Amino acid sequence: MTGRDPRPVRCAIIGTGNIGSDLMEKVLRSDRLELCAVVGIDPESDGLARARAHGIPASHEGLDWLLARPELPAIAFEATSAAVHAAGAPRLEDAGIAAVDLTPAAVGAPVVPSVNLDDHLDTPNINMITCAGQATVPIVAAIASVADVRYAEIVATIASRSAGPGTRANIDEFTETTAQALIDVGGATMGKAIIVLNPADPPILMRDTVYAALPDGSDLDAVSDAIERQVDEVSQFVPGYRLKQEVLFVEGTFDTPGGPAETCCTVLLEVTGAGDYLPTYAGNLDIMTAAALRVGERLAEHLAASGATR
Is 264 a catalytic residue? Predict the structure, then answer.
């Protein structure tokens, strides 16, 4: 970006579990973000130990410690739980810190980088929805850009080992937030989300199935092309994101919650993690942290251009 402040923008990570630790490894490679603090609540957490090993100020005293720092970050990545972020979000906003929320708290604007990021760069709180949302909402949005999606249903299957305490504590919020994002961001008339924790050993890769009910007369070639373009765009920042097979169309008459439809479009996706902190089977975590990094870097550019950095 011409005229962009070349200095990286200060940011912090709140939460030192799997997601926070994986995000830390990604942020440390960024030339647009400077990780100035990592906070959690467990003094023995591996995330805090890794932060200190990288020379990053870190504390188990949580948000209180962060907000008491003499120099605050411009951006805070929230990687705790829905309940924790719901309580902390007003404090971040009052401090003038832009929040990138990786929990399904749904406090802020739901954002999928390849779909609607630029619409929310001035929003004080950006919600990254869920891992299933980041994987499937782009597909529904792609379909909706060329056809009427009367009903969208997604099934996200992840390795049980990759579902930490935060994910397990937020299953209800996960399904509700993802389903709503299929409508609000994806453009479907109605939406439903299902998550499956698969205990298979060895662990499976993240797999997502998208079903979209389309009316008679939909341009199916245009639908396929839009999906493939969207997959290419998402894979620019999530390299392990791919179509598992060609888009499938089944024509007939289907009764859906969104009304009668004549074609069912089925999209099978697979996400392989980058292996930054966790094994590559944890694509569900990788797509969240990779998408959050994309948002954070774009926010940093926007803040630098507007002179609103710290």
Answer: no
Q: Share the mean pLDDT of the chain.
A: 94
- On the question of a cis peptide bond just before residue 202, with omega within 30 degrees of 0, the verdict is yes
CATH 3.40.50.720 intervals, the chain:
9-128+288-306
Task: Read off the pTM.
Answer: 0.93
CA end-to-end span of the chain: 19
Contact between 191 and 230 (Cβ < 8 Å): no
Residues 6+ apart with CB under 8 A from 10: 33, 34, 36, 71, 72, 73, 74, 75, 309, 310
Pairing of strands 259-271, 248-256: antiparallel
pLDDT > 60? residue 105? yes
Residue extent(s) of CATH 3.30.360.10 domains in the chain: 131-282
Class of domain 131-282: alpha beta
Neighbours of 29 (CB within 10 A): 9
Per-residue pLDDT band for 1 (boundaries 50, 70, 90) equals very low
CB 116 within 8 A of CB 222: no
- Choosing from 11, 36, 131, 264, which is the catalytic residue? 131
Architecture of the domain whose range is 9-128+288-306: 3-Layer(aba) Sandwich (3.40)
Residues in CB range of 147: below 8 A, 6 or more apart: 212, 214, 215, 218, 219, 222, 223
